[in-house]
What does this fold into?
Amino acid sequence: MDWTVLNSKKHELDSIRPLPPALVRNLEEWFRVELTYTSNAIEGNTLTRRETAIVIEKGLTVGGKSLKEHLEAINHAKALDIVRELVSKKNRNLSEADILRIHEMVLSGIDDSNAGRYRDVAVRISGSSVVLPNFRKVPVLMEEFAAWLKGQKNLHPAALASEAHYRLVTIHPFVDGNGRTARLLMNLILMMHGYPPAIIRPRDRLAYISGLESGQLGGPKIQYERLILKAIGRSLDIYLKAVKGEDDDSQLEEDNLKLKIGQIAKAAGETVPTIRFWTKEGLLHVVDVSESGYQLYDPATIDRCRQIQALKKKRMTLAEIKIKLQG
It folds into this structure.
């Protein structure tokens, strides 16, 4: 992997440090919401970006959303606080206890019996042919993983973060919350080395999951590694533009790409009531709400509609389709 561009951006950011404290606080607050929203959205949480901000910044509830979705937002934000606390402790090695502490917060109040504990049952990833390690092997695999983390002194920080994320989700040490914990660990490593956290966008979900699965099935990991590389680069750009006082057009681009329900229906060849029903059933997810109150969807929703259509032709029920798509 060519780290030249990433190294250049990191060097530029380092050259203008220390950053103004007010700017740092602003960026940290923005990343706290964005990381929480995106990481949860990848796992199927339907809170929009604005709703996520309302929940974690104002402590309010959002009508029509489940308690679990609220807890997922609150817990992820608190887990990020733990990550920042660990980053502040200089010159220390990451341990199994650190990973378990992060995971415990991720599942706090959602599944307390499994929060911060390795799984003791067999698990499968819905819709995937990846065979996960036997649960009896998990303690040893995690011990080896922690030793591997401790021994990586010469690996590029971005490569280390990416590989640590990949190895943790491949071990799949927990009953639930593996993806969130792996992304938090990845960002903990990045931040310990002076990088901003990387944001994996919901629109990249399919590429992200298929990239991981390719490696887990013995194929190349290049798609996954490139996706992480680009995510780190985008975060560096956000910091650099903020320092220079430049407008960040990445969010504007993201907003312009969001589609209204009518646009989704037309592109997918379905009726608006059908798209609305699929959304209500949790098959499709609203990513934001416009100032006028319109529900907005990611363009990838069109492909998801086509997946639903293909699965319906196989006479699968909506409940079966939902399980299939959650993989």
Summary: Strands lie at 259-260, 288-289, 295-297. The mean pLDDT is 91. The domain at 257-325 is CATH 1.10.1660.10 (Multidrug-efflux Transporter Regulator; Chain: A; Domain 2). The chain has two domains: 4-252, 257-325.
